[in-house]
């Protein structure tokens, strides 16, 4: 999963500096940087706070971060079928 990439992209999209988001979430900038680089996975409670600050629903993060290798074998076709529609819905919601 590429949760950090999604969070960084959204943070940049809404124009919040990394140190500012870290401060708002009561975490260190180093920890946030490690999350964004995929070096650390945030606890759900931390992810929830980050998502609130970014006005990004957590289910969106999980879906956008999902990669085919995250799926059980045999589910790739279903993912390919629903992914474009869900991506479109999410983009419409965020913009």
Could you explain the architecture of this structure?
There is one protein chain. The protein is mainly α. It has a single domain (3-94), classed as Orthogonal Bundle (434 Repressor (Amino-terminal Domain)), CATH 1.10.260.40. 69% of the residues lie in helices and 0% in strands. It is built from 6 helices and no strands. The mean pLDDT is 92.
Features:
mainly alpha; 434 Repressor (Amino-terminal Domain); 6 helices; 95 residues
Give a brief outline of the structure.
The chain is an all-alpha fold.
Low-confidence stretches: none
Number of strands: 0
Distance between the first and last residues' Cα: 23 Å
Order of helices and strands: HHHHHH
> How many structural domains can be distinguished in the coordinates?
1
Percent helix, as a range, is 55-70%
At the fourth CATH level, what is the homologous superfamily?
Answer: lambda repressor-like DNA-binding domains
C-alpha-based Rg, rounded: 14 Å
The biggest beta sheet, please? none
- The chain-level mean pLDDT equals 92
The level-1 CATH class: Mainly Alpha
What count of helical segments does DSSP give? 6
| Approximate strand percentage | under 5%
- For the record, the CATH architecture stands as Orthogonal Bundle
Topology:
Layout: H1 3-14, H2 18-25, H3 29-36, H4 44-54, H5 58-65, H6 76-94
Helix pairs in contact: 1-5, 2-3, 2-4
